[in-house]
Amino acid sequence: MTALWLGIAVLTLMAVSIVFWPLLKNYRESKQHPVDVDRTQQNIEIFKERLSELEKECALGTLSDEAFTELKLELERNLLIDAETNQRKDPVLKMGSSQLVTIMLLALLVPASSFGLYAYLGRAVDLETSLSMNAWNDSLNNPDLTLEEAIAQLEAELTRRPENAEGWYLLATTRMNLNQFDLAAAAFAQSALHLPETSPELAGVLGQQAQALFFAKGGQMDDEVLALTDQSLQRNPTEITSLGLLGIAAFEAENYAGAIEYWQAALSNAEGNAAESLRNGIERARMQLQNATPDAADQAIEGAFVRVYIDLDESILTEITGDQTVFVFARPAGQRMPITAVRMQVNQLPAEVRLDENSTLMPNMSLADFEEVDLVARISVTGNAEEGPGDFKGSLSSVKVSNDEVIRLIISERID
Questions:
Q1: How many CB atoms lie within 10 A of CB 373?
Q2: Cα-based angle 213, 252, 235 (whole degrees, multiple of 5)
Q3: How does residue 262 score in pLDDT terms, banded at 50, 70 and 90?
């Protein structure tokens, strides 16, 4: 940060010098070459003196009336010519001491105000946070430092700047990798505490805090862990860590149908290795469910459902790409929280989608609890579950549940 402020100071000094130097130079020249009498006024005085002389000569008889009139006209003509010439010339800037002082005060006031505005409106804190995090990442890769020494440096930085949510998150993930789950949970809690309530990362941090506590307590899903998963899912119903954690707890409690529901919900927002792990977990739960009761696996996928055919309006085809994410979900009429959802990609459309118990997001709520729901299909340009500017969507209201009819839903509306 010292380098930043030093750089700003140097640039400000250069800018002030560029503006102020010509004015100072002009002031010095005006002191060396003062102009005591205005040139036009001087010409008028000369005109009056010469006219007075002509009048005296005319009175003494040494100058005829005709000659006097002619010479007077000549004097007047010369005076007018001189006046016009002076008006056409560039004005001379004359600067007094009081004016110089005013300019100096303004030259100092402008950078001072700029510093104040930057301190109030700028992002110096964010820059300092980024620089400190980069320095800590460099220390992790420094072969001369042990991991414990690097962690000690980060903790010292967090003692100095406890509001650094990113720093707490880095410390928490490092503690998780070291299997220090209680310390990781405490660091995740600090990260969540210093994140804005509207931050899209908050749901994920709460989910990871719940996971750290779950492991720290030996795999016990107590009220504290459940409260954190609830907070996480209220902010993002498809938050993978919370849903995965609830699925693990259900599986270990031999509630295989419940585990399938949680992991199916998490799968709607998962990619890569995470998605593959969830699919493997779902398959294991199905096998356990099949072994326990032969008909239970089939029963788990039966129940309330909605069938919807998703297609794209031609007007948006040039504004979307095949790898963008599509969220298809059902929610109670007039509410924002979805109860079931499926995730896919644009290049899979058009397609028929079935929303049922397998894609339920909320453990205590399903399609079976409603006679009608609202359907929404949304293309997310960022891949986030939350709706954002630039997304495209289509929606239908009051769709009957468990109706064999396939509902057609067209994505056509741009979200601004």
A1: 26
A2: 50
A3: confident
